[in-house]
Design brief:
This protein has helices at residues 18-28, 65-79, 103-111, 139-142, 145-152, 160-177, 188-191, 206-211, 234-244, 246-264, 269-319; strands at residues 3-9, 33-38, 56-59, 88-93, 96-97, 117-123, 129-130, 134-138, 182-186, 217-218. The protein has 320 residues and is an alpha/beta fold. The chain has one domain (3-228): Spore Coat Polysaccharide Biosynthesis Protein SpsA, Chain A. The strands form two sheets. Strands 1, 2, 3, 4, 6, 7, 8 and 9 form an eight-stranded mixed β-sheet that branches. Strands 5-10 form a two-stranded antiparallel sheet. Helix 1 (18-28) links the parallel strand 1 (3-9) and strand 2 (33-38). The radius of gyration is 26 Å and the shape is elongated. It starts with a strand and ends with a helix.
């Protein structure tokens, strides 16, 4: 099977990060061509990191987020004849670490699915959609006019959430309404449960996702960005990654550390993050107990004072 991937990236420092190189090396094992589109200029010689990995690299500021990169990569692939004999087209980006497990396991499973396009995870936030960090389209979709028209509509929006509303959450709906069928590698119910539709982002359950064979971990689970509240332990997550893929564990640890320093400029934050809720719950419990002890002491003191005052008043009354 011939696959073409468009990889969208952004790095404000103008570098191609180690986790990106690792991701692309592993993806290259399953695809024939990778088109790398960065929404930023890069430092001299950075592109050498992708030598023998990508077919084409474009690094220039367009300020249209990942969707602008997807559009540019798709158009380049079409113009240069890469899509004519391709079986699948992949849109993916640098919002994830991975793969924890080989991509081959996912592609093998999804080849058996009777669908026209698929994603790693599905969501019901805003409306039903496939989350846009990893999407796979089969030939009947990516050579169709509805697909071409929708991707060609990707243009600059006012903010991140406008991209989510106009493009991410509408992509699947547009294709479904055009007669195509979709699937998800990890179903929403298997991750979150059927009772919490519209409430939760399945990517905030990274430990559960790993247990289902999900090879990717969203970077934002290590630092709260663009919304979402982590539902599972970072400490357990890192232990699971270390158990299955020690090399990736080191890459994630180093990159997450840099993310947190960049966000908070505080060296202690990373360690606190890895301990995260277990530590915080223990801390808050102890703090609550301390407050309760203070309240009890104040209550006893007040009670003693009231009793003493009452006895004093009684003594004065008897003395009269």
């Amino acid at each position: 099977m011939k696959r073409v991937a468009v990889f969208a990236s952004y790095n404000k420092e103008g570098i191609i990060a180690t986790f990106v190189v690792h991701f692309l090396k592993e993806l290259k094992k399953e695809v024939d061509d990778i088109i790398f589109i960065a929404d930023n200029e890069i430092r001299p010689n950075e592109d050498y990191k992708l030598k023998d990995i990508v077919t084409y690299i474009q690094c220039e500021r367009h300020a249209c987020y990942d969707f602008g990169s997807y559009r540019r990569g798709y158009e380049w692939a079409a113009e240069n004849g890469l899509l004519k004999d391709a079986d699948e087209l992949i849109f993916c980006n640098d919002s994830c670490y991975g793969p924890v497990y080989p991509f081959r396991e996912v592609f093998s499973k999804m080849e058996e699915k009777n669908c026209d396009f698929w994603g790693m995870t599905e969501s019901y936030q805003m409306r039903y959609h496939l989350q846009s960090y990893f999407l796979v389209f089969r030939q009947n979709v990516f050579l169709s006019e509805p697909f071409r028209a929708f991707v060609s509509s990707f243009e600059k929006q006012e903010d991140f959430w406008e991209y989510v509303k106009k493009y991410e959450t509408m992509f699947a709906e547009h294709l479904l309404s055009s007669g195509f069928d979709c699937a998800s590698f990890c179903s929403y119910d298997s991750v979150v449960g059927s009772e919490r539709k519209e409430l939760d982002n399945p990517c905030m359950y990274p430990v559960t996702l790993l247990s289902l064979g999900m090879p990717l971990v969203k970077r934002k689970v290590f630092i709260n960005k663009h919304g979402g509240f982590l539902r599972e332990s970072q400490k357990v997550l890192m232990n699971e990654i270390k158990k299955h893929n020690p090399a990736l564990y080191d890459i994630i640890r180093d990159d997450s550390y840099e993310q947190l320093l960049d966000a908070d400029d505080n060296r202690a934050v990373f360690e606190a993050k890895l301990e995260e809720r277990e530590y915080m719950i223990d801390y808050l419990t102890k703090k609550r107990r301390k407050h309760l002890r203070v309240i009890r002491i104040l209550g006893y003191t007040l009670a003693v004072a009231v009793v003493a005052l009452g006895l004093s008043c009684l003594n004065k009354t008897l003395a009269k």
